[in-house]
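ingest -> fold -> write
write: protein_1
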Amino acid sequence: MAKHGFRKLSVLMAAYNEQATLRECVAAVMQSPLADGLEREIVLVDDCSTDSTWQIMQELVADHPASIQVHRQPVNMGKGAAIRRAIECMSGDLAILQDADLEYDPAEYSRMLAPILDGRADVVFGSRFTGAERRVLYFWHSVLNKALTLLSNMLNDTNWTDMETCYKAFTANAIKAIPLYSNRFGIEPEIAAKVARNRFRMYEVPITYNGRGYDEGKKIGWRDGVAAIWFIFKYRFFSSYSDAGKSTLDALEQAPKFNRWMYDSIKPWLGQRVAELGSGQGNLSAFIVNGRSALLTDYRDDYCQRLSHKWGVRRDVSVARLDMTRSEDYAAIEAFAPDSVVFLNVLEHIEDDRAVLRNLYGRIPAGGRLVVLVPYDMKLYSQFDEDLGHYRRYGKGELEEKVKEAGFLVERRFFFNKPGRLAWYLFNTLGKRRALSSAQLKLYSFLTPLFRVWDKIVPGVGLSIVVVARKPISS
């Protein structure tokens, strides 16, 4: 692997009736200089052209079968739909969007990719309005472009200078994490909104621009500009922007009182050296690292990067990538020698949960504790559980039995969040809702002081169950 850590760039190119420029554009992409060790592939998607675009694509792939792949839409669906198809077919760990009309110069790929290759960015936009040369064209077109960029920035709390730019570069992890829905030119405001809502590391670089006139084949018109206003609002407020798990973690960030309640429930059993599995974005980690030595882990690189950004400078906090399905990854826990291993709302995501518990038993010191919180009661299992990747909600005695089977001694078990059980049943099991919104979690957080009292005095079971166990000390 090259020193920058990336292997291949996928150039994603949608084309509709681009017979006049397609060959020249592909040739420019093939000749564009790239960083050392970086391969390239070109993913061409013909949007059911009526000219010879598809024939030219077939000729291009015949000439370059190792570096070009071609696909054709069954009907004309629009640029956004073609880009989605290209994303599905790409094999690179970097991606850049390229129009087939040569308005944008592939010679500038190195500039576009530099912030990503340097480890500073997940997403880079190429701006036509930050100092590079450009062809002078339509005044009102540029006014509308800047107005749309301003509106997008206001709603998404960003400061792009050119939201509508075609040139956008991504890590594969970033672009594949975004669910895209736009079929036409709404793809640009959709991407701008969703990279902001995902809180990716965003950069902007100047690029040159050789815009086309309408007599030269330019396709976007004023109607697309007006429609973009709706898309800016839609994708900021009304559309999913990531997978269910990340969206839920984002919403939970808006519920600090609830996160504090969860932490307070497990605090007595933590000790001074704590390993947290499945730390995610660090909602609970913020409490765990306070006054302790901590090992924070997750299997997702983007979460590990975020954890490192937050706490990587602290000498008493370390971050490690740990996939709980890989026994070799548990070496990080053994090296850390924790007083306790904590994983909250994690074990239900693992199909072979018994293997996780066995691996932990073999890696933590004698006398070390497990503190595990999982969702309770399969009667509450919903489509939202499935979307979150839950293999199960735990039944009566199930978690305790599995913990004992691994060799641990169960010290305590208790239910957590009894009010949440009712809310989950009404909204997710009966109501079939498939997401938790920030507004819902903010309200729940506001009511948390009341719910904490409810949890103590009202009998019954909770939305979750907590089990605390200890590895025996050898005699």
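write: protein_2
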Amino acid sequence: MNGTAFAIARRELRGGLRGFRTFIACLALGVAAIATIGTITASVTAGLADDARTILGGDVAVRTVQREVTADERAWLAAHGTPSEVASMRAMAIRPDGKALDGKDRALIELKSVDAAYPIYGKVELAPAMSLADALAFRDGHWGAAIEQALVDKLSIKPGDQVRVGDASLVVRAVIVREPDRAGNVRAITLGPRVMVSTGGLKATDLVRPGAQIRYEIRMKLPPGVDARRFRAALNGAFPDAGWQVRDSGNAAPGVNRFIDRTAQFLTLVGLTALLIGGVGVGNAVSTYLSEKTATIATLKCVGATARTIFFAYLAQIGVMAAGGTAIGLVVGAALPPLLAGALADVLPLPLKLALYPGPLLVAAAFGLLTALTFSLWPVARACLVPAGSLFRDLIAPAHGRPGARVAIATALSVVVLAALAIVTAYDRWIAIWFVAGASFALILFRLAGIGVMRAAAAAGGVRSTRLRMALANLHRPGATTASIVLSLGLGLTVLVAVALVEGNLTRQIADTMPARAPAFYFIDIQPDQLAGFESAVRSVPGAHEIRQVPMLRGRILKVNGTPASQVRATEDGAWVLRTDRGLTWSAAMPPGTDLVDGTWWPANYSGPPLVSFAAGAARGLGLRLGDSVTVDVLGRPLTARIASLREVQWDTLALNFVMVFSPGMIEHAPQTHIATVYADPSAENAVEKAVTDKFPNVTAIRVREVLNDLGGLMERIAGAVRLTAGITVLAGALVLGGAIAAGHRRRVYEAVILKVLGARRREVLATFLMEYGLLAAATMAIAALVGSVAAWAVLTRVMRADWIFLPGAVAWTGAVAAALTLGLGFAGIWRALGHKAAPLLRNE
């Protein structure tokens, strides 16, 4: 850029922000959203990294399921560091006095036992303040326990009271304020509050029985200078067939990391959508600003300025404004996370390391500047490459020149770089690629839809109503912003429609469909010799009308077709199966209701090599076919089975479904428990729970209705967050709409004055203009409803594998938002226009 262009840009900038307020607001909104999300993600990631050993509970954690480590394994671990053993399982906590609160005197809990070395890192905080050893010690004939506040609230117990867990009466000595390794096991839904006991306290409960659903974890504190990765390699080399899951501080909370990364990606894409919508406002603002500079540009050309000089002069001016809008967005994005820290701590108990992170801010700045460049190049080039004479004629007859190939290539290159940035910075590249493709398609679709609305308005110009005819004429007149408004507002409303329909469908299925088909209870850890007594206890309660039970073990997939699970390339449909242990069962006969989609069930008297029936959806995700093999760790022993059939599993029924069902012959000889579902009337649920858990203290009852309520609450919180973030796109559309109305203010003033001079009353002019905006809102909403419904259908049926039903109420709510935005902003602009006096304007004309 030469000195002349710079001088022109500097002089133009002296005019202030007039014409660029919408431009700056659109950029600032999108950049702020992306910068805020990136900063929060970086804060959580840094917090996890800094507290990784505390979250994990050690330098290395070795997890086994349903079995303790052997003596040889324990000796090896003790020889290579300082171990601490933790065990966790689900159990029932019961008030020993039998006094029920709201009909309930017992609650499902997450029981955790710890040894004297716990915690290796971090500190447990209790109320009243005391050491963990004192809280859990055996004293006055009872083991102690520390409990979460949620159990205090559920059973109305307090420190000093007793609570029965299994066969033990525990004395509650403290309430857990902080559990240092809690974040390492963060789950979307926790089935019960934490109860912490000592190793001796767990033994006293008599819950540790053969086949019980219990997880053991040995946390290791390594000697100084010992690398965790080398330790893991040595451990796995010493015990290659142990089948345990080993984590180090580098992946202390993999589930949390996945959740944070995916949430951040979703929110970033929402922010990017808002930025793209704002890009339309950027283009409109630039076009409007340059249209007001027609005489200036023409004069510059007449006195010898080249198109190149003028192009770079105005591009530099726009660059300064873009930098200003981006800077505002960055300041907001860096300032918001500390303000949101308290709310985030309540939602997700994770450590936040709040700081100024350059990386996310640079990415947000790049998105903002690239968006401004992408949407500004074309209108600037168009205004500056038209001959001077045409520019003067633009005052009364706008020209429609097209920039040359170089500008088209530069614009295309800017689009490619913007898309590449979205893909490269994404957690899941495929999702980002689909987003880029979908955004491109949506931009083209809504642009064409806007042109279609203008043509439809032109074709309908022969109506009798004067008001309606004038409103239609305003939609397709020269210089009308109809197409850009349909594009920007339509994209935001499409996101809202899709979100509302997805949320509504999922909520409907949880609230209506699932309870109609779901059991009332899951009962776990039923010992084989307790089956007859269990069924007798359930059937003794009126209102309990169906019992289904199957034997169950837990195992973890070690290999798929001989390839270690960690090296298997799987889609999300199958990757979840490999992350941790899964429930296993076996059956000679094909279970009732089984839907085989491929292969055949083994004969009832089958006694050959192990076979397995695999869930079809998970098999597709893992690339498995009939005849392939999977190796599963069962109680520390690898079991390899060949896939004999694939089953379609309906997980949403909450029935007894398993990813893997094995043939009999080997697995049934392992220590086992049974899991059962009980279908009962709501009025009988308390009696069923009491009958079973009083007779069998080791059996745990999980109320499906409570789980569904928790799931519904989680869905509502997620939906609220999604609606809030989706609202950013509507706000961006509103900014574009407001900018378009502001840009046409002068024309509105002129039209209002002429109509009043011709005898039109104020209310008639107002009604005409509002009718224009009403038609615009209706057309935009109709298109958004169609596109949003298709998008929601695709997400539900293709991605979530859920049922779909059209919910007119959700669409109507979104339509109300569209009408309120369009008519509200339109009314504000019209009211200002109607306030102008006719005489001054006519004298100036």
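write: annotation protein_2
The two ends are 39 Å apart (CA to CA).
The chain has four domains: 1-55+254-427, 58-251, 449-517+704-845, 544-680.
pipeline exit 0
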